[in-house]
């Protein structure tokens, strides 16, 4: 790549003393936080960071920036001068780690190489420097193993097999029992593996090692697992990763050394205390990989009190500085504590709500910031059911409660099977000794993850918490045999692949079979069955209550429900709905009313049609009386009949068989024959773009006027009973203002007749759904005849994209998501650039014509957290969603409002 195409940046490399925590875009999260800790005077090993800009140049051109090598050399020279030793020199060698560090945490998804600088010559110098030959050869074998897998692409299982063989020969079970002589032999075996598999010798030049490792970290940004993780977490793909080159400190120097991960609060519950894992005589990868089981961090006080006390003080400093839960990686080298990383830690949904309110009480953050520390996806997780404590269960194990939830599924022992079975509709639990980044696709597919090794800081735990996935780690009493696809539990019972198991991520318990579930306390709170503030109130419920109360005070968007009957309406009201944004009247025509609809469709004369409509009118009126009673004092938007009429008739194949059988038996079948003729008459190649919505009202005389009359009479009855009905009549699938004008004129006439007959003045507003591109593009004209717009984003997404939702999600959406064409399905989160731009333009044009035009949305996007923020930005008045998602929409509407305030203040 020519120099004039490189970004105009002052430099590509920053010393740890030069950055700060606000430079995450440039230095990545790890580099920015290493710099911040250095600025705070904390014990951070010296080093430097290669910026994300350098990575972007490399990924775009395939070559490192021309200036990068010289900048790295200058910073390496400065590091060598400061440390008083040279990279990889034969005596007293400097060793470095090369670690990835993107702006957003992607645990385990990208590459790291430790002990860069070791070679056949320098390993002896390291042994002399440390006075420990075993340590030097252990570090060397680790370098070859990590470098071979990460940089040269050698299958990591080959190294693991060789390590297992060495332990088998020695008749030991853990690698720390291997002696220097054993490790020398292992290094020789590892080098042979590299030579055979990579087609080259392991590089002995320390600078070549470092340069190749830097390039490998750049390349790891675009590995399949990294791309999959970014799609899952909705992280942009064009950010690139920084690379951190840090002088090595060694936790594998004996029992007075070690490595660990610490949290300033429990990431699973949010409770304050001493949380984390520690492993003596180990390097950092041993902890997060779950290869050796750790001890609780609290035991460090007994092992090394001086380091423990210093660590506790540093943790308090970092939490007060970042004003949040911090996740910390540290190493102790012969009694000297070193800080290797800190970041704002991932946490479970429950922990997020608890921590946010705790920090408010401590005066570290205000309520507005607390609201930004939680989100709707986390709230939705808290509303999932939990295992029934009263159920008869067979507990077979218990591990570490790493990520809460109640997960039931068939045991599978590899990611491929998890994905395959999940795609065929099976619910699965991924069971592994420990997970690694290559298991990510299986972890996403599974209902939950169970491992027999590792702790709260292992790969499985960290990734599961980030995804909101149920996880139990370190269930040591379970013997997992992935090759034979089975798990042996205490007592000798064997769980084969496909057997049902249940795992409780809140308690760490593992059960055989399916454990029944009960509603979560958060749902009970929203339904009014658990009261926040009561003496025995659940701590989590109290935290949710406080944050929801603030969100409700701050939000501008109102939240309504999609509900079609009084029962759903009452549930929605308990969940905090401020009205009904969509009542689908077609759902009222099913069941025992189908026969009346059939008679309407089969009517040959005006009298027959009038008779059918007359029979339907009182039933419809009863529906609306019940609905208006349930939502008294709140708006109820009633959508007139929308779907094609053939949906109310029998299936064409089934009906044809019935007619054929009746004819063959010479049985009476006149009615079935008429039905079949009607089905054929109404059959359409693409019914969702055919005779439905407003078109039905225009083609079938009396259909819409019957519904309008039922609405008006129900409203009048409620009003005369001292109620406060607030009905809104919505005309679906309008594409031109003329359609709306005709229906509106008929509706106004019917309403006037009802007012005259009942002596009751009604205030019924009439509006339309905007669900066709033409409606959005001519919204200014349509607003002349509409008092409100409700955006039907489900149909609008279908018609803008040319997608049939019932078909495309099953046929090619998976491929589109995997290839990165979609970051997320446009039916799940609104497509801001396409569908969203039509919504924004229609809202603006509609209000230009009618300034008091009420604007809402009633598609599924009304309950999607990201979409709610968009609807706030474009100025809608309300969103409407299913009852269960109302709390999520309320929370996100509050978050959107406080974010807007924050932007205004800035």
TrEMBL record:
<feature type="domain" description="PEP-utilising enzyme mobile">
    <location>
        <begin position="426"/>
        <end position="508"/>
    </location>
</feature>
<dbReference type="Pfam" id="PF00391">
    <property type="entry name" value="PEP-utilizers"/>
</dbReference>
<dbReference type="InterPro" id="IPR036637">
    <property type="entry name" value="Phosphohistidine_dom_sf"/>
</dbReference>
<dbReference type="Pfam" id="PF02896">
    <property type="entry name" value="PEP-utilizers_C"/>
</dbReference>
<feature type="binding site">
    <location>
        <position position="639"/>
    </location>
    <ligand>
        <name>substrate</name>
    </ligand>
</feature>
<feature type="binding site">
    <location>
        <position position="584"/>
    </location>
    <ligand>
        <name>substrate</name>
    </ligand>
</feature>
<dbReference type="InterPro" id="IPR002192">
    <property type="entry name" value="PPDK_AMP/ATP-bd"/>
</dbReference>
<keyword id="KW-0670">Pyruvate</keyword>
<dbReference type="InterPro" id="IPR018274">
    <property type="entry name" value="PEP_util_AS"/>
</dbReference>
<dbReference type="InterPro" id="IPR008279">
    <property type="entry name" value="PEP-util_enz_mobile_dom"/>
</dbReference>
<dbReference type="GO" id="GO:0005524">
    <property type="term" value="F:ATP binding"/>
</dbReference>
<keyword id="KW-0479">Metal-binding</keyword>
<feature type="domain" description="Pyruvate phosphate dikinase AMP/ATP-binding">
    <location>
        <begin position="64"/>
        <end position="293"/>
    </location>
</feature>
<dbReference type="InterPro" id="IPR013815">
    <property type="entry name" value="ATP_grasp_subdomain_1"/>
</dbReference>
<feature type="binding site">
    <location>
        <position position="793"/>
    </location>
    <ligand>
        <name>substrate</name>
    </ligand>
</feature>
<feature type="binding site">
    <location>
        <position position="771"/>
    </location>
    <ligand>
        <name>substrate</name>
    </ligand>
</feature>
<comment type="similarity">
    <text>Belongs to the PEP-utilizing enzyme family.</text>
</comment>
<feature type="domain" description="Pyruvate phosphate dikinase AMP/ATP-binding">
    <location>
        <begin position="299"/>
        <end position="350"/>
    </location>
</feature>
<feature type="active site" description="Proton donor">
    <location>
        <position position="858"/>
    </location>
</feature>
<dbReference type="GO" id="GO:0016301">
    <property type="term" value="F:kinase activity"/>
</dbReference>
<feature type="binding site">
    <location>
        <position position="771"/>
    </location>
    <ligand>
        <name>Mg(2+)</name>
    </ligand>
</feature>
<dbReference type="GO" id="GO:0050242">
    <property type="term" value="F:pyruvate, phosphate dikinase activity"/>
</dbReference>
<feature type="binding site">
    <location>
        <position position="794"/>
    </location>
    <ligand>
        <name>substrate</name>
    </ligand>
</feature>
<dbReference type="InterPro" id="IPR015813">
    <property type="entry name" value="Pyrv/PenolPyrv_kinase-like_dom"/>
</dbReference>
<keyword id="KW-0418">Kinase</keyword>
<keyword id="KW-0547">Nucleotide-binding</keyword>
<dbReference type="InterPro" id="IPR040442">
    <property type="entry name" value="Pyrv_kinase-like_dom_sf"/>
</dbReference>
<feature type="binding site">
    <location>
        <position position="795"/>
    </location>
    <ligand>
        <name>Mg(2+)</name>
    </ligand>
</feature>
<dbReference type="InterPro" id="IPR000121">
    <property type="entry name" value="PEP_util_C"/>
</dbReference>
<feature type="binding site">
    <location>
        <position position="795"/>
    </location>
    <ligand>
        <name>substrate</name>
    </ligand>
</feature>
<dbReference type="InterPro" id="IPR010121">
    <property type="entry name" value="Pyruvate_phosphate_dikinase"/>
</dbReference>
<dbReference type="Pfam" id="PF01326">
    <property type="entry name" value="PPDK_N"/>
</dbReference>
<feature type="binding site">
    <location>
        <position position="792"/>
    </location>
    <ligand>
        <name>substrate</name>
    </ligand>
</feature>
<feature type="domain" description="PEP-utilising enzyme C-terminal">
    <location>
        <begin position="542"/>
        <end position="894"/>
    </location>
</feature>
<keyword id="KW-0067">ATP-binding</keyword>
<keyword id="KW-0460">Magnesium</keyword>
<feature type="active site" description="Tele-phosphohistidine intermediate">
    <location>
        <position position="459"/>
    </location>
</feature>
<protein>
    <recommendedName>
        <fullName>Pyruvate, phosphate dikinase</fullName>
        <ecNumber>2.7.9.1</ecNumber>
    </recommendedName>
</protein>
<keyword id="KW-0808">Transferase</keyword>
<dbReference type="GO" id="GO:0046872">
    <property type="term" value="F:metal ion binding"/>
</dbReference>
């Amino acid at each position: 790549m020519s120099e004039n195409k490189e970004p105009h940046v002052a430099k590509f490399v920053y010393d740890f003393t030069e950055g700060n925590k606000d430079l995450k875009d440039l230095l990545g999260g790890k580099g920015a936080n290493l710099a911040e800790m250095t600025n705070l005077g904390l014990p951070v090993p010296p080093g430097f960071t290669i910026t994300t800009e350098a990575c972007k140049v490399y990924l775009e051109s395939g070559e490192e920036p021309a200036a990068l090598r010289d900048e790295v050399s200058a910073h390496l020279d400065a590091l060598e001068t400061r440390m008083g030793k040279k990279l990889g020199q034969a005596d007293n060698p400097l060793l470095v780690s090369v670690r990835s560090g993107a702006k957003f945490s992607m645990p385990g998804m990208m590459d790291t190489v430790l002990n860069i600088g070791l070679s056949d010559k320098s390993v002896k110098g390291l042994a002399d420097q440390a006075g420990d030959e075993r340590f030097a050869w252990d570090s060397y074998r680790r370098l070859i193993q990590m470098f071979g897998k990460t940089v040269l692409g050698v299958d990591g299982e080959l190294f693991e097999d060789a390590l297992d063989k060495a332990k088998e020969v020695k008749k030991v079970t853990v690698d720390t029992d291997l002696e220097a002589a054993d490790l020398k032999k292992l290094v020789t075996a590892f080098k042979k593996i590299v030579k055979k598999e990579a087609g080259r010798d392991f590089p002995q030049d320390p600078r070549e090692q470092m340069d190749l490792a830097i390039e490998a970290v750049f390349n790891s940004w675009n590995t399949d697992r990294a791309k999959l993780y970014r799609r899952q977490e909705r992280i942009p793909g064009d950010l690139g990763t920084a690379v951190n080159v840090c002088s090595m400190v060694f936790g594998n120097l004996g029992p007075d050394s070690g490595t660990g991960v610490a949290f300033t609060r429990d990431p699973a519950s949010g409770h304050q205390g001493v949380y984390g894992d520690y492993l003596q005589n180990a390097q950092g990868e041993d902890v997060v990989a779950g290869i050796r089981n750790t001890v609780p961090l609290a035991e460090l006080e007994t092992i090394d009190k001086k380091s423990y006390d210093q660590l506790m003080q540093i943790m308090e400093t970092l939490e007060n500085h970042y004003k949040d839960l911090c996740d910390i990686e540290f190493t102790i080298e012969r009694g000297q504590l070193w800080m290797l990383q800190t970041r704002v830690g991932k946490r479970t949904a429950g922990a997020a709500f608890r921590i946010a309110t705790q920090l408010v009480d401590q005066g570290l953050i205000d309520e507005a910031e607390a609201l930004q520390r939680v989100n709707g996806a986390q709230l939705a997780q808290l509303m999932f059911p939990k295992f029934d404590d009263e159920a008869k269960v067979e507990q077979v194990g218990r591990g570490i409660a790493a990520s809460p939830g109640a997960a039931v599924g068939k045991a599978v022992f590899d990611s491929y099977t998890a994905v395959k079975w999940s795609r065929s509709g099976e619910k699965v639990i991924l069971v592994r000794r420990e997970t690694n980044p290559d298991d990510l696709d299986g972890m996403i597919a599974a209902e939950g993850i169970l491992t027999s090794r590792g702790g709260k800081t292992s790969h499985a735990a960290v990734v599961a918490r980030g995804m909101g996935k149920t996880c139990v780690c370190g269930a040591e009493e379970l013997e997992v045999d992935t090759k034979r696809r089975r798990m042996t539990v205490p007592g000798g019972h064997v769980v084969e692949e496909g057997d049902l198991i249940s795992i409780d991520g809140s308690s760490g318990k593992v059960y055989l079979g399916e454990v029944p579930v009960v509603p979560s306390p958060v749902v009970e709170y929203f339904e009014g069955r658990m009261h926040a503030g009561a003496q025995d109130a659940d701590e989590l419920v109290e935290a949710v209550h406080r944050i929801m109360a603030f969100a409700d005070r701050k939000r501008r968007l109102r939240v309504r429900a999609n509900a079609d009957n009084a029962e759903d309406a009452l549930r929605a009201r308990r969940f905090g709905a401020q009205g009904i944004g969509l009542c689908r009247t077609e759902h009222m025509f099913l069941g025992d009313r189908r026969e009346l609809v059939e008679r309407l469709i089969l009517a040959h004369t005006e009298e027959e049609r009038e008779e059918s409509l007359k029979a339907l009118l009182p039933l419809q009126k009863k529906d609306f009386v019940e609905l208006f009673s349930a939502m008294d004092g709140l708006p109820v938007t009633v959508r007139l009949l929308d779907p094609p009429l053939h949906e109310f008739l029998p299936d064409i194949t089934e009906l044809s068989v019935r007619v054929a059988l009746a004819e063959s038996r010479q049985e009476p079948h006149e009615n079935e024959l008429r039905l079949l003729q009607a089905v054929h008459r109404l059959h359409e190649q693409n019914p969702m773009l055919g005779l439905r919505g407003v078109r039905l009202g225009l083609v079938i005389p009396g259909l819409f006027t019957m519904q309008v009359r039922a609405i008006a009479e129900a409203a009048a009855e409620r009003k005369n009973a001292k109620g406060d009905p607030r009905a809104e009549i919505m005309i679906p699938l309008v594409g031109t203002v003329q359609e709306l004008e005709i229906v509106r004129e008929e509706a106004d006439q019917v309403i006037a007749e009802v007012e005259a007959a009942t002596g009751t003045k009604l205030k019924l507003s009439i509006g339309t759904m905007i669900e066709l591109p033409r409606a959005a593009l001519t919204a200014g004209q349509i607003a002349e005849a509409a008092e409100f717009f409700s955006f039907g984003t489900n149909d609008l997404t279908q018609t803008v994209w040319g997608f049939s939702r019932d078909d495309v999600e099953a046929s090619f959406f998976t491929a589109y998501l995997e290839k990165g064409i979609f970051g997320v399905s446009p039916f799940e989160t609104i497509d801001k650039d396409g569908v969203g731009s039509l919504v924004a333009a229609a809202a603006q044009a509609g209000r230009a014509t009618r300034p008091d035009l009420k604007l809402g949305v009633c598609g599924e996007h009304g309950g999607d957290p990201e979409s709610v923020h968009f609807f706030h930005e474009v100025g809608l008045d309300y969103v409407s969603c299913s009852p269960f998602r109302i709390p999520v929409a309320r929370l996100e509407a509050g978050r959107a409002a406080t974010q807007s305030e924050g932007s205004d203040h800035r």
